[in-house]
């Protein structure tokens, strides 16, 4: 059972639905409620235009880095790749802040992955292979941690199962930007990503443990030779939804696994002990087979009655081992195929957008958040007063909106009241009297918003002035 999510500043309601619920309050007259819908339409239109320039700038700067582009990547002479990248990052961060995403520091990500990793392992994103990594997140909740099905003998041993399932953190929205160092890394990036993302939990644990014990990663393919052309770094942008902490490492094709000397000893010593126990059983059997082969080669008489007593149990043991190995391998292949099918389904439903499409996705979310914040602040300043009948202060408005959202939608969030007031002020819809705030009447608001929209394009006015 999922715990109430931590939404941060995100308002989990569509703008249209929010306006409908505000109109159902009936604090305003029927005529004013219809006018409020027109106010909402104008606010949405102005924000859509405001973000159009940001979207155009971000997509234009990203095009040269886009691995999915099917149009020519024309780079004007003297154009700097670093300047393009900085321009794209600036626009992207502006959109993310407006959409109420917050930065996910690498240190916090590493701590979360280590917490979800097998015991004794420290997991870190390997920054050496990337020129730049940006991670943003929005909203988290606690969900039961999925468990792999137990084999029948393990289920018999596991008598005292915990009553409460183990919980883990799930990130509701996660954005990742990875800038590779060179164009030649792109195919290797995909190959490594597919390899690590396609592992089962058991395979991943074994690989991570092996890398940690050895203190190095498994051998990677040699990078391809450059064709002599200009090196344009590739930038991957991905947005995911509902990402469990236990699967975070699959989103990065290159992580560093570390282990302390004590933890290495806990793993290596049992392996050595198990190996010695196997050797003690296998060596006598091999000696019997070796003695038999040596007698045949030397042409000596063989006491088959003597060897039969020792040989047939050995052959029977090898037959049993072979049968068990075949069954285990068959089961492994079936498990692998089932996991791959589950992985493809998970990626299909959890991956929200990629590369250039990420900007459109985020801009829509940013527009929605900006509109909702502005409309909530406007409505309560227009339609309500505090307990003393006075206009709201900033703190009173913040408390009232958060209380109303919890009453109407059953969710608790941190309403960004200062940003909402700034939005109204930018649109000339805020009047401050001391530490209290007011907004114009709804008719004056419609006039101001209409004038604001009319000033966006002034070509006809300029033409008339020049005539």
Outline of this structure?
By secondary structure, this protein is of the alpha+beta class.
How much is the radius of gyration in Å?
32 Å
SS-based structural class?
alpha+beta
**Count of beta strands:** 9
**Biggest sheet, in brief?**
5 strands, antiparallel
Strand order of the largest sheet: 1-3-4-5-7
Which helices and strands occur, and which strands form pairs?
Blueprint: H1 15-24, H2 30-62, H3 81-98, E1 102-103, H4 106-116, E2 122-125, E3 130-144, H5 152-157, E4 167-180, H6 185-197, H7 201-214, E5 235-244, E6 255-258, H8 261-298, H9 304-350, E7 351-354, H10 356-383, H11 394-409, H12 417-426, E8 431-433, E9 436-438, H13 442-454, H14 459-466
Antiparallel strand pairs: 1-3, 2-6, 3-4, 4-5, 5-7, 8-9
Model description:
With 467 residues, the chain is an alpha+beta fold. Helix content is 57%, strand content 13%. The chain has 14 helices and 9 strands. The chain has a 5-stranded antiparallel sheet. β8 (431-433) and β9 form a beta hairpin. The longest helix has 47 residues, at 304-350. The relative contact order is 0.13. The mean pLDDT is 78.
